[in-house]
UniProtKB/TrEMBL annotation:
Stated name of the protein: Trimethyllysine dioxygenase, mitochondrial
Domain of life: Eukaryota
NCBIfam families the record matches: carnitine_TMLD (TIGR02410)
Record's subcellular location: Mitochondrion matrix
Gene: Tmlhe
First-listed, main subcellular location of the protein, grouped into a coarse class: mitochondrion
Family per similarity comment: Belongs to the gamma-BBH/TMLD family.
Enzyme class: oxidoreductase
Catalytic activity: N(6),N(6),N(6)-trimethyl-L-lysine + 2-oxoglutarate + O2 = (3S)-3-hydroxy-N(6),N(6),N(6)-trimethyl-L-lysine + succinate + CO2
Residues annotated as signal peptide: 1-18
Domain TauD/TfdA-like as annotated: residue spans: 158-401
Function summary: Converts trimethyllysine (TML) into hydroxytrimethyllysine (HTML).
Length: 418
């Protein structure tokens, strides 16, 4: 009986505009293999149209065409029995949802999708929520809004430094600082007391300090106290830090406490801007740099310190659903033996790496900054490469690494997209 009724619905009621639910059989069986899809008997609002397929609902809302699997629709139910709105946590046991589940009835009004499941449970979704949270909606969104820059773009933007007192004592100052940091990947705080302790207080305003093999707060001069080129007076080429960690440190803080000599300017390069140029000019290079995993390694046997760190990951890390870049892992000093791809990929990778390196080294991409006592610099280590020119004399620098999650958490609590 229900087969005949379903075919009647498909043939006789297709395209009608009457209100109501579309009721579906519990077990579609082989009868649905013939028609590719079925139409609703319920009215679709002007901005919304929908079709039921064998295993998913196709829903057009505004300019977004969503394809929502029935398992996904059941799993994300926001009813009180399936989701705890107070804790923003799922209560439903996902493993208990049948993979072949289909709704028994479907209805769409001007703003809401209603689904009744075989056990009688009703799920409701706001169409705006679905458009935002569907795969198709996510593809159209940017996770982290940012402004890509070279030296000229950054200078013309005239991004202000934030006064230390405003940064520490007001939400407005902190929010302005974080907005600058999120957009450009670097931000400055002025009038900081040139001490290690005051730098610590500054850092803890936005994040928990990440303790590493270098401790919590580090303070160094050119005494080669660690087995690292950074502890010398030599020039340092552009790089990101801690590429030899499985999760490279998210943010780095620099504060020059004293410099009695010449040189020592800090070099900053927007790695995302350089990668974007590679994507435009040679997308095959970008794709290879985003796929091939590399090993970076740090070996230390100096004094009583013994460390052997290995981090693995591609140079470019992207969100797969929208190809948005979120991390660059670039450090030619610490790159380990390249043995993660077969020989026929090796030369293609070197060609791609050289294309990125050429962009990173273009003079117009280089922003040079002289760090002086009282001026602290925050660097997004997942985006902006830093380096240093050679220097003379006594130079003392302090700083630390911050946990990226906590910085982004602080930004979101202030109403910023992060």
């Amino acid at each position: 009986m229900w087969c005949q009724r379903l075919l009647w619905l498909l043939r006789g009621r297709r395209g009608t505009t009457g209100r109501g639910w579309l009721w579906l059989p519990r077990d579609p069986g082989p009868v649905l293999a013939a028609p590719a899809h079925c139409h609703s008997t319920a009215p679709a609002p002007p901005c919304c149209a929908w079709q039921l397929h064998q295993d998913h609902l196709e829903l057009s809302y505004g300019s977004t065409v969503m394809r929502l699997d029935f398992v996904w629709l059941r799993d994300h139910c926001r009813s009180a029995s399936c989701y705890n709105a107070k804790t923003s946590q799922r209560s439903l046991d996902t493993a208990s949802v049948e993979l072949g589940i289909r709704p028994q009835a479907v209805r769409v009004d001007q703003s809401t999708l209603f689904l009744t499941w075989p056990d009688g449970h009703v799920t409701r979704y706001g169409l705006e929520w679905l458009a935002k949270n569907s795969y198709e909606g996510q593809k159209q969104q940017v996770m982290h809004p940012r402004i890509l820059w070279n030296a000229e773009i950054y200078r013309q933007a005239q991004v202000p430094s934030i006064d230390c007192r405003s940064f520490l004592e007001t939400d407005e100052g902190l929010k302005e600082f974080l907005q600058n940091f999120l957009l450009y990947g670097i931000a400055f705080v002025e009038n900081v007391n040139p001490t290690k302790e005051d730098t610590r207080i500054l850092a803890e305003r936005i994040s928990i300090i990440r303790e590493t093999i270098y401790g919590r707060m580090w303070c160094f001069t050119s005494d080669f106290s660690r087995g690292d080129t950074a502890y010398t007076k030599l020039a340092l080429d552009r790089h990101t830090d801690t590429t030899y960690f499985q999760e490279p440190c998210g943010i780095q803080v620099f504060h020059c406490l004293k410099h009695e000599g010449t040189g020592g300017r800090t070099l900053l390069v927007d790695g995302f801007h350089a990668a974007e140029q590679v994507l435009r000019q040679a997308p095959e290079h970008f794709e290879l740099l985003a796929k091939v995993p590399l090993k970076h390694e740090y070996v230390e046997n100096v004094g009583g310190r013994h460390n052997h760190m290995i981090g693995v990951g591609p140079v470019l890390n992207v969100y797969p659903w929208n190809n948005e870049l979120y991390l660059i892992r670039y450090n030619n000093y610490d790159r380990a033996v390249f043995n993660t791809v077969p020989h026929d990929v090796v030369r293609r990778w070197y060609r791609a790496h050289r294309a990125l390196t050429a962009e990173l080294r273009r003079p117009h991409n280089e922003l040079w900054v002289k760090l002086k006592p009282g001026k602290a610099l925050f660097v997004d280590n997942w985006r902006v490469l830093h380096g240093r020119e050679a220097f003379t004399g006594y130079r003392q620098l302090c700083g630390c690494y911050l946990t990226r999650d906590d910085v982004l958490n602080t930004a979101r609590l202030l109403g910023l997209q992060a």
